[in-house]
Amino acid sequence: MADKLISKIPDGPLSEKWTKRKSEIHLVSPNNKRKLEIIVVGTGLGGASAAASLGELGYNVKVFCISDSPRRAHSIAAQGGINAAKNYQNDNDSIYRLFYDTIKGGDYRAREANVYRLAEVSAAIIDQCVAQGIPFAREYGGYLANRSFGGVQVSRTFYARGQTGQQLLLGAYASLNKEIAAGTVKSYPRHEMLDLVVINGEAKGIIARNLVTGQLERFGAHAVVIATGGYGNTYFLSTNAMNSNGSAAMQCYRKGAYFANPCFAQIHPTCIPVHGDQQCKLTLMSESLRNDGRIWVPKKIEDVEKLRKHQIKASQIPEEDRDYYLERRYPAFGNLVPRDVASRAAKERCDAGFGVNETGKAVFLDFSDAIRRLGHQKVAERYGNLFEMYEKITASSPWEEPMMIYPAIHYTMGGIWVDYDLQTTIPGLYAIGEANFSDHGGNRLGASALMQGLADGYFVIPVTIGDYLSHKFAEPKTDINAPEFAVAEKAVQARIDRLFSIKGTETVDSLHKELGHIMWEYVGMARDEEGLKTAITKIKELRERFYKDVKVPGTQFEFNQELEKALRLEDFFDIGELMAYDALNRRESCGGHFRIESQTEEGEAKRDDANFMYVAAWEYKGEGKEPELHKENLKYEFIEVKTRNYKD
Amino acid sequence: MNFNVKIWRQRNAKAKGHFETYHIDDIESDASFLEMLDILNEKLIREGIDPVSFDHDCREGICGACSLYIDGRAHGPDDHVTTCQLFMRHFKDGATITVEPWRSSAFPVIKDLVVDRRAYDKILQAGGFISVRTGAAQDANNILIGHDTAEESMDAAACIGCGACVATCKNGSAMLFVAARVSSLALLPQGKVEAAKRARAMVAKMDELGFGNCTNTRACELECPKGISVAHIARLNREFLKAKFSE
Question: Tell me, what's the ipTM?
Answer without folding.
Answer: 0.98
